[in-house]
Structure formats: structure tokens, C-alpha cells
Amino acid sequence: MVNKYVLLVEGKNEKYVFDHLFIHHGIAEGVIGCRVKDGVSKLLESLQQELRASDLERLGIVLDADQDLLARWQAVRNRLAAAGYAGVPVDPNPEGTIVEQEEHPTVGIWLMPDNTLPGMLEHFVSFLGADKDPLWAIADGCLDEIPADRTHFVPSHRIKAHIHTWLAWQEEPGTPFGSAITKHYLNADAPHAQQLIAWVRRLFDLCLETKEEL
To answer: pTM to 2 decimals?
Structure first.
């Protein structure tokens, strides 16, 4: 299927989170084509090919900042510069970056979790109300009880263990991120979700639709 509006994400978890946020916020199915790239390296490598698509008008890029937000930002910036984009800012916009270049598709960049902090999708998900639940702190304490020689995840992935532990204690244990939004374990109207959706609406020129819905 050809889409003039395309959103590139690292993995299926990201896609499912966007799918469920879009449903909640009234963004019609099929308006934005969401493409899973199976990791940051493949996403970055595919950028120039995606930008050359003849029908493309607007492209969203969603990546984890991981441990070095500025290094991740520079990696995206370098690839966009190589594709002919001269106006990419030195630093990401905390509200989500949007770059317009004459005779090129409009490009938006969002670095998970919020364009200002190092981290990943799981940090963003935790900001959707999980960190307000008393069980959140208890789950964190459980991780501290694991003996060092039994802790198999790397420190940077602690958030993954944390949020999946928390999800295991919900009414339906082990619910995936997207379904956790639908089941209201996570709050799709939390400030971080509102900020992300506002960026999506600006990038894909859906503001008029928002006003009509209101």
C-alpha cells in the first residue's frame, strides 16, 4: 500500500503503542502508514530510500535515544543532511522536531522517551501513569532484591524488567504495551502521550481534523 504519510519505528512494540494511541485520540486507521524497521540500525540505513519514495509527502522518524541522546540525534541529523536537508537543528526540539525543506518531504523526528532524556520506549510507557501506581515502586524494589550473580539483564535494560514486572501484576498479567493502553492500565491522556500526539498531528497536518473533532 502506498502512503503519502509514513511513520518509521524501530519495532513492533512501538507500532502497537502508536496504533492504540491513534485509536484513542481519533486518528483514523490508514491515514499514517507505520513501518517497522527491526532496530535502529536498519531504520537509519533505510532513511534515504524511504525519502526517495515518489508519493511521500511527510515522514516521521521515531527512535530510542538510548544512553546518549545527542549521539543518536547526530546520527539522524547526518543522514538527513546527506539526503539534502539543510535546516535540521543542532539540538532536538523538546516538543518533537519537524523539518521542512523545499522540494523534499517534510520530516519529523521524535527521540524516545521525550526528546530531552536518554532512554527508550519503555521509559515513555512508564510515563503513562505506571510511575504513579504504588505498585511501580514495589516492582522497582523487587529488582533490587535480585542477587547480582542472578541479574542477567544489562543495567540500561533495567526499565524493561521494571515495566514488565509491573505489567505482570495487573488484572491480566503480561498484557502488551498497546493493549495496556486500551485496558487503561496506562493512561493515553497522560501529558507525555498528549505531547507525542500533538507532534504527530503537527507533522502530518492533522490539526484541522482535531478542531473538527472538538
So the answer is: 0.92
